Amino acid sequence: MADILQILILGLALGGVYALMGSGLSLVFGVMRIVNLAHPSLIMVGAYVAYWAFKLYGVDPMISLPIATVILGAIGVLLYKLIFEREARSAKYSEMTVLLTFALAMVVEGALGTAFTNTQRVTSPGYATDAFFIADIFIPKGQLYAGIVSLTLITFLALFMKYSRFGNAIRATTQNREAAELLGVNVNLVGLVSFAIGIALAGAAGALVSFILSFFPAKHWEWIAILMSLVVLGGMGSILGTVLAAYILSVVAAFVGFYFGATWSTLTFFVALFVVLLVRPQGLFGEKPELA
Asked: From 220's CA, which of 44, 82, 207, 229 has a CA 20 to 30 Å away?
């Protein structure tokens, strides 16, 4: 029983970070239909911001998290204006973004590899290797803090989306872009801000990832499978679905890793992606596609 509770705690703690990693990707797809294969590589940028802030100046990753968020948000604005804005009305926009973001991921990986080499790195504040102990159960402080911060950020995002006027505009654009525009919503501004928020969340996730997982430039190829499995299982564009999928798959992966070995843990996300696409491609909260 203690083993089961321990695995559950570890899975839930890591699930919060996965939820934050996937929520930005889900938001961007929901509003702009951008399949952002570069999202994990931008998370990597956030991780490097936190790592070097800690390495050079001793800034705790929790403190540098807002810095990484702002930097990545600014990068998101530039990327949207330079790459994604001009073809937003194209009927083939989603298909085009797959190729665009794949190329962008390669560029980011190459730039990071050139600047920092492919050495594995991890930020090492004191709490990253410490834990709380309750009888035979331990709770890693790093994962716990990262999970709490992730849930806090996701909660703020949910409140912003539900209760703010601009959040309502985002939700309207997500549901029907043309109808929202007819009602006076500036869909271009909504797209820009939504993309910036999505990439800013990638920066925040990167700062948290920097002290709970080791990372290097090519690591993003492993993360894209994990994030796509979360977004697909939750329902493309559903932030709530992505969060629930993150917790479900993280816990399942934790149990698989404990009973079958760490190698099989990551495979859980690949298998989930494959099965969901076969059995329920719309995911938990996605809309079932209509046949023409």
From this structure: 82
pLDDT single digits (tens) 127-154: 998 999 988 889 999 999 999 999 999 9
Is residue 191 a contact partner of residue 80, using CB atoms and an 8 Å limit?
A: yes
| Of 26, 12, 21, nearest in space to 147 by CA | 12
Handedness of CA 91, 285, 69, 208 (dihedral sign): negative
Instruction: Tell the burial category of 102 from Cβ atoms under 10 Å away from its Cβ (0-12, 13-18, 19+).
Output: middle
The answer to whether position 21 is within a domain reads: yes
d(CA 73, CA 70): 5
Residues lower than pLDDT 50 in the chain: 290-292
Helix, strand, coil percentages, rounded to 5, for the chain: 75, 5, 20
Does residue 116 fall inside a structural domain? yes
Q: What residues make up the domain containing 107?
A: 2-216
Q: How far apart are CA 241 and CA 26, in angstroms?
A: 9
Per-residue pLDDT of 157-186, as tens digits, reads: 999 999 999 999 998 988 888 888 888 889
